[in-house]
Amino acid sequence: MTDHINAPQKWSRFKYPDSLYKHGTLLIILLFLGYSLNFLNVDIPLLLGALGGLVGVVGDRYYPPDVAYVLDRGYLAAILDTLQMSFLGGFAGVCLAIPLAWFSAWNVAPNRRVLFPIGRLGVISCRAIHETIWTILFVSVLGFGMLAGVSALTMFCIGFAGKLFADEIEAIEMGPVEAMRSAGANPFQVLIYAVVPQVRVAFTGIAIYTWDVAFRAATVVGFFGGGGMGWYLKRNVQQLENLRVAAIILSIIAMVLVAEFLSGWLRAAVNRAK
User: Fold this and answer.
1) CA distances (Å), 234 to each of 47, 220, 228, 242, 245, in order?
2) Cis peptide before 64 (omega within 30 of 0)
3) Residue 41: strand, helix, or coil
4) Which of 29, 66, 72, 252 has CA 20 to 30 A from 11's CA?
5) What is the pLDDT of residues 193-219, one digit of tens each?
6) d(CA 145, CA 140)
7) Cβ neighbours, 10 Å, residue 195
8) Is 227 helix (H, G, I), strand (E, B) or coil?
9) What is the pLDDT of residues 110-150, one digit of tens each?
Protein backbone atom coordinates (compact mmCIF):
# COMPACT_ATOMS: atom_id res chain seq x y z
CA MET A 1 0.00 0.00 0.00
CA THR A 2 2.89 2.33 0.87
CA ASP A 3 4.63 1.60 -2.42
CA HIS A 4 1.48 2.52 -4.27
CA ILE A 5 1.23 5.86 -2.48
CA ASN A 6 4.91 6.75 -3.03
CA ALA A 7 4.89 5.75 -6.70
CA PRO A 8 5.67 8.70 -9.03
CA GLN A 9 2.61 10.15 -10.63
CA LYS A 10 2.44 10.30 -14.41
CA TRP A 11 1.48 13.67 -15.86
CA SER A 12 -1.15 13.68 -18.56
CA ARG A 13 -2.30 16.75 -20.45
CA PHE A 14 -5.75 15.39 -21.20
CA LYS A 15 -7.90 13.52 -18.70
CA TYR A 16 -11.31 12.03 -19.14
CA PRO A 17 -13.59 13.42 -20.52
CA ASP A 18 -11.20 15.88 -22.24
CA SER A 19 -9.27 13.01 -23.78
CA LEU A 20 -12.52 11.60 -25.18
CA TYR A 21 -13.37 14.92 -26.78
CA LYS A 22 -9.86 15.25 -28.21
CA HIS A 23 -9.65 11.78 -29.74
CA GLY A 24 -13.27 11.88 -30.84
CA THR A 25 -12.73 15.16 -32.69
CA LEU A 26 -9.58 13.80 -34.32
CA LEU A 27 -11.45 10.67 -35.41
CA ILE A 28 -14.28 12.73 -36.91
CA ILE A 29 -11.77 14.86 -38.85
CA LEU A 30 -10.02 11.77 -40.22
CA LEU A 31 -13.32 10.16 -41.20
CA PHE A 32 -14.46 13.34 -42.95
CA LEU A 33 -11.13 13.60 -44.78
CA GLY A 34 -11.40 10.01 -45.96
CA TYR A 35 -15.00 10.54 -47.06
CA SER A 36 -13.99 13.69 -48.97
CA LEU A 37 -11.17 11.89 -50.80
CA ASN A 38 -13.53 9.06 -51.72
CA PHE A 39 -16.35 11.42 -52.76
CA LEU A 40 -14.04 13.48 -54.98
CA ASN A 41 -12.49 10.33 -56.49
CA VAL A 42 -8.97 11.49 -55.61
CA ASP A 43 -6.46 8.91 -56.83
CA ILE A 44 -3.51 9.32 -54.46
CA PRO A 45 -1.01 7.20 -56.50
CA LEU A 46 -1.99 9.07 -59.67
CA LEU A 47 -1.61 12.39 -57.90
CA LEU A 48 1.85 11.50 -56.62
CA GLY A 49 2.84 10.34 -60.10
CA ALA A 50 1.61 13.59 -61.61
CA LEU A 51 3.65 15.60 -59.12
CA GLY A 52 6.71 13.60 -60.11
CA GLY A 53 6.09 14.29 -63.79
CA LEU A 54 5.61 17.99 -63.12
CA VAL A 55 9.37 18.50 -62.89
CA GLY A 56 9.84 17.08 -66.37
CA VAL A 57 7.08 19.24 -67.83
CA VAL A 58 8.53 22.39 -66.27
CA GLY A 59 11.99 21.51 -67.56
CA ASP A 60 10.74 20.86 -71.09
CA ARG A 61 8.42 23.86 -71.45
CA TYR A 62 9.78 26.57 -69.18
CA TYR A 63 13.55 26.17 -69.37
CA PRO A 64 15.60 28.19 -70.05
CA PRO A 65 13.63 31.32 -69.06
CA ASP A 66 13.82 34.32 -71.38
CA VAL A 67 15.67 36.61 -68.98
CA ALA A 68 16.25 39.25 -71.67
CA TYR A 69 12.48 39.79 -71.85
CA VAL A 70 12.17 40.87 -68.21
CA LEU A 71 15.15 43.23 -68.65
CA ASP A 72 13.33 45.12 -71.39
CA ARG A 73 12.47 48.75 -70.67
CA GLY A 74 8.74 48.12 -71.05
CA TYR A 75 8.69 45.33 -68.50
CA LEU A 76 10.84 47.30 -66.06
CA ALA A 77 8.27 50.09 -66.35
CA ALA A 78 5.58 47.50 -65.51
CA ILE A 79 7.50 46.59 -62.34
CA LEU A 80 7.49 50.26 -61.36
CA ASP A 81 3.75 50.42 -62.08
CA THR A 82 3.18 47.45 -59.79
CA LEU A 83 5.19 49.10 -57.02
CA GLN A 84 3.26 52.34 -57.40
CA MET A 85 -0.05 50.50 -57.49
CA SER A 86 0.73 48.56 -54.31
CA PHE A 87 1.97 51.67 -52.52
CA LEU A 88 -1.03 53.81 -53.48
CA GLY A 89 -3.53 51.05 -52.74
CA GLY A 90 -1.88 50.20 -49.43
CA PHE A 91 -1.59 53.84 -48.35
CA ALA A 92 -5.20 54.67 -49.22
CA GLY A 93 -6.45 51.44 -47.65
CA VAL A 94 -4.60 52.03 -44.38
CA CYS A 95 -5.81 55.64 -44.17
CA LEU A 96 -9.42 54.57 -44.70
CA ALA A 97 -9.09 51.55 -42.40
CA ILE A 98 -8.09 53.63 -39.36
CA PRO A 99 -11.46 55.42 -38.88
CA LEU A 100 -13.35 52.22 -39.67
CA ALA A 101 -11.28 50.37 -37.06
CA TRP A 102 -12.04 53.13 -34.56
CA PHE A 103 -15.76 52.79 -35.25
CA SER A 104 -15.70 48.98 -35.13
CA ALA A 105 -13.73 48.69 -31.85
CA TRP A 106 -16.40 48.09 -29.21
CA ASN A 107 -14.46 49.54 -26.29
CA VAL A 108 -13.85 53.00 -27.85
CA ALA A 109 -16.53 53.26 -30.56
CA PRO A 110 -17.95 56.82 -30.59
CA ASN A 111 -21.49 55.53 -31.08
CA ARG A 112 -22.22 51.86 -30.48
CA ARG A 113 -25.70 52.00 -31.99
CA VAL A 114 -24.85 53.70 -35.29
CA LEU A 115 -21.11 53.97 -35.97
CA PHE A 116 -20.16 50.56 -34.55
CA PRO A 117 -22.40 48.61 -37.00
CA ILE A 118 -21.24 50.86 -39.86
CA GLY A 119 -17.59 50.25 -39.02
CA ARG A 120 -18.05 46.50 -38.64
CA LEU A 121 -20.04 46.26 -41.85
CA GLY A 122 -17.40 48.22 -43.77
CA VAL A 123 -14.51 46.08 -42.58
CA ILE A 124 -16.36 42.79 -43.00
CA SER A 125 -17.61 43.74 -46.48
CA CYS A 126 -14.11 44.58 -47.69
CA ARG A 127 -12.69 41.36 -46.21
CA ALA A 128 -15.48 39.17 -47.58
CA ILE A 129 -14.70 39.93 -51.24
CA HIS A 130 -11.43 38.68 -52.72
CA GLU A 131 -9.12 41.13 -54.46
CA THR A 132 -9.70 39.42 -57.79
CA ILE A 133 -13.44 40.04 -57.50
CA TRP A 134 -12.79 43.67 -56.56
CA THR A 135 -10.58 43.96 -59.65
CA ILE A 136 -13.24 42.52 -61.94
CA LEU A 137 -15.83 44.88 -60.48
CA PHE A 138 -13.66 47.98 -60.86
CA VAL A 139 -12.46 46.98 -64.33
CA SER A 140 -16.09 46.67 -65.43
CA VAL A 141 -16.75 50.20 -64.13
CA LEU A 142 -13.45 52.04 -64.71
CA GLY A 143 -11.96 50.00 -67.54
CA PHE A 144 -8.57 48.32 -67.74
CA GLY A 145 -5.63 50.07 -66.11
CA MET A 146 -3.97 51.05 -62.88
CA LEU A 147 -6.94 53.06 -61.57
CA ALA A 148 -8.98 49.88 -61.33
CA GLY A 149 -6.02 48.07 -59.79
CA VAL A 150 -5.40 50.75 -57.18
CA SER A 151 -9.11 50.83 -56.31
CA ALA A 152 -9.23 47.05 -55.89
CA LEU A 153 -6.11 47.05 -53.71
CA THR A 154 -7.55 49.87 -51.62
CA MET A 155 -10.68 47.87 -50.84
CA PHE A 156 -8.58 44.80 -50.11
CA CYS A 157 -6.30 46.73 -47.74
CA ILE A 158 -9.26 48.31 -45.94
CA GLY A 159 -10.53 44.87 -44.97
CA PHE A 160 -7.08 43.47 -44.19
CA ALA A 161 -5.74 46.38 -42.12
CA GLY A 162 -9.10 47.34 -40.61
CA LYS A 163 -9.51 43.97 -38.93
CA LEU A 164 -6.00 44.06 -37.44
CA PHE A 165 -6.35 47.69 -36.36
CA ALA A 166 -9.66 47.00 -34.61
CA ASP A 167 -8.19 44.01 -32.77
CA GLU A 168 -5.28 46.13 -31.53
CA ILE A 169 -7.61 48.87 -30.31
CA GLU A 170 -9.81 46.40 -28.45
CA ALA A 171 -6.71 45.01 -26.66
CA ILE A 172 -5.57 48.35 -25.15
CA GLU A 173 -5.53 49.21 -21.46
CA MET A 174 -8.78 50.99 -20.61
CA GLY A 175 -7.36 52.97 -17.69
CA PRO A 176 -6.24 56.00 -19.76
CA VAL A 177 -9.48 55.86 -21.73
CA GLU A 178 -11.63 55.93 -18.62
CA ALA A 179 -9.51 58.74 -17.17
CA MET A 180 -9.99 60.86 -20.29
CA ARG A 181 -13.72 60.18 -20.34
CA SER A 182 -14.10 61.08 -16.65
CA ALA A 183 -12.28 64.36 -17.35
CA GLY A 184 -14.89 65.25 -19.99
CA ALA A 185 -12.94 64.48 -23.15
CA ASN A 186 -14.90 63.85 -26.34
CA PRO A 187 -14.45 60.59 -28.31
CA PHE A 188 -11.93 62.12 -30.74
CA GLN A 189 -9.79 63.44 -27.88
CA VAL A 190 -9.94 60.01 -26.26
CA LEU A 191 -8.72 58.48 -29.51
CA ILE A 192 -5.82 60.91 -29.95
CA TYR A 193 -4.56 61.08 -26.36
CA ALA A 194 -5.53 57.73 -24.85
CA VAL A 195 -5.71 55.23 -27.71
CA VAL A 196 -3.11 56.35 -30.27
CA PRO A 197 -0.15 56.36 -27.80
CA GLN A 198 -0.89 52.69 -27.02
CA VAL A 199 -1.29 51.47 -30.61
CA ARG A 200 0.99 53.68 -32.73
CA VAL A 201 3.84 51.16 -32.82
CA ALA A 202 1.52 48.26 -33.61
CA PHE A 203 -0.27 50.34 -36.25
CA THR A 204 3.06 51.12 -37.92
CA GLY A 205 3.95 47.44 -38.09
CA ILE A 206 0.52 46.56 -39.44
CA ALA A 207 0.78 49.30 -42.09
CA ILE A 208 4.12 47.92 -43.27
CA TYR A 209 2.74 44.38 -43.36
CA THR A 210 -0.29 45.64 -45.29
CA TRP A 211 1.96 47.08 -47.99
CA ASP A 212 3.82 43.76 -48.15
CA VAL A 213 0.58 41.87 -48.70
CA ALA A 214 -0.67 44.53 -51.15
CA PHE A 215 2.44 44.11 -53.29
CA ARG A 216 1.86 40.36 -53.55
CA ALA A 217 -1.78 40.95 -54.41
CA ALA A 218 -0.84 43.58 -57.02
CA THR A 219 0.44 40.93 -59.44
CA VAL A 220 -2.85 39.03 -59.16
CA VAL A 221 -4.80 42.27 -59.60
CA GLY A 222 -2.74 43.04 -62.70
CA PHE A 223 -3.53 39.61 -64.16
CA PHE A 224 -7.23 40.47 -64.06
CA GLY A 225 -6.88 43.87 -65.71
CA GLY A 226 -5.15 46.12 -63.19
CA GLY A 227 -1.93 46.54 -65.17
CA GLY A 228 1.69 46.05 -64.16
CA MET A 229 3.55 42.75 -64.13
CA GLY A 230 0.33 40.78 -63.89
CA TRP A 231 -0.83 42.11 -67.26
CA TYR A 232 2.42 40.93 -68.90
CA LEU A 233 1.99 37.54 -67.27
CA LYS A 234 -1.56 37.18 -68.57
CA ARG A 235 -0.64 38.24 -72.11
CA ASN A 236 2.23 35.77 -72.38
CA VAL A 237 0.21 32.94 -70.83
CA GLN A 238 -2.50 33.47 -73.43
CA GLN A 239 0.10 33.54 -76.23
CA LEU A 240 1.77 30.35 -74.87
CA GLU A 241 5.12 32.12 -74.53
CA ASN A 242 6.31 29.66 -71.91
CA LEU A 243 9.91 30.85 -71.70
CA ARG A 244 8.74 34.42 -71.13
CA VAL A 245 6.21 33.21 -68.57
CA ALA A 246 9.02 31.45 -66.67
CA ALA A 247 11.09 34.64 -66.67
CA ILE A 248 8.13 36.72 -65.47
CA ILE A 249 7.40 34.25 -62.65
CA LEU A 250 11.04 34.37 -61.58
CA SER A 251 10.96 38.17 -61.60
CA ILE A 252 7.79 38.16 -59.48
CA ILE A 253 9.41 35.79 -57.01
CA ALA A 254 12.50 38.00 -56.87
CA MET A 255 10.43 41.14 -56.26
CA VAL A 256 8.37 39.42 -53.56
CA LEU A 257 11.57 38.31 -51.82
CA VAL A 258 12.90 41.87 -51.91
CA ALA A 259 9.59 43.18 -50.56
CA GLU A 260 9.60 40.51 -47.85
CA PHE A 261 13.13 41.44 -46.80
CA LEU A 262 12.34 45.17 -46.81
CA SER A 263 9.10 44.83 -44.86
CA GLY A 264 10.74 42.46 -42.38
CA TRP A 265 13.57 44.92 -41.81
CA LEU A 266 11.13 47.80 -41.31
CA ARG A 267 8.98 45.79 -38.89
CA ALA A 268 12.08 44.83 -36.92
CA ALA A 269 13.10 48.49 -36.76
CA VAL A 270 9.62 49.39 -35.50
CA ASN A 271 9.74 46.68 -32.84
CA ARG A 272 13.12 47.93 -31.64
CA ALA A 273 11.63 51.39 -31.28
CA LYS A 274 9.04 50.19 -28.74
Assistant:
1) 27, 10, 10, 11, 9
2) yes
3) coil
4) 29
5) 888 888 888 888 888 888 888 888 888
6) 11
7) 21
8) coil
9) 887 888 888 888 888 888 888 888 888 888 888 887 888 88
